């Protein structure tokens, strides 16, 4: 990806489906992804990496086996590697994700919600 200014709102405006992350930028071996979230995802883990969620708008609940974590705009939460989690949102949420390149959105769960990483135009 070339060095260029990227606008988060413009990037989000191009996303038409929920749970389909799009690469906004790359930093070393990490991808910065934008995503629209609504509904409930699948329970999954990322055995080899932490996952950072930053909510831009809306309210996101990250269900953990021992508690729920609720994030609002400008909140950040890191799900530690190997921790089973399930994001959900009653209304649409706009978020940034920070993950190592190649991280699959459904982690070890796979299934129909697994997305290929989309590139922004």
UniProtKB/TrEMBL annotation:
Domain Cupin type-2 residue range list: 38-95
InterPro entries according to UniProt: Cupin_2, PKS_Associated_Protein, RmlC-like_jellyroll, RmlC_Cupin_sf
PANTHER family: 16.7 KDA PROTEIN IN WHIE LOCUS
Protein name, UniProt field: Cupin domain-containing protein
Source species of the chain: Auraticoccus cholistanensis
Top-level taxonomy: Bacteria, Bacillati, Actinomycetota, Actinomycetes, Propionibacteriales
């Amino acid at each position: 990806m070339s060095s260029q200014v990227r606008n988060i709102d413009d990037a989000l405006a191009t996303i038409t489906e929920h749970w389909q992350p799009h690469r906004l930028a790359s930093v070393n071996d990490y991808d910065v992804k934008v995503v629209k979230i609504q509904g409930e995802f699948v329970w999954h883990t990322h055995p080899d990496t932490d996952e950072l969620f930053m909510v831009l708008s809306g309210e996101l609940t990250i269900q953990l086996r021992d508690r729920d974590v609720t994030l609002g705009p400008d909140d950040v939460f890191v799900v530690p590697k190997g921790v089973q989690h399930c994001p959900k949102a009653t209304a649409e949420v706009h978020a940034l994700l920070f993950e190592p390149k190649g991280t699959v959105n459904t982690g070890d769960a796979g299934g129909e919600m697994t997305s290929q990483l989309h590139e922004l135009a």
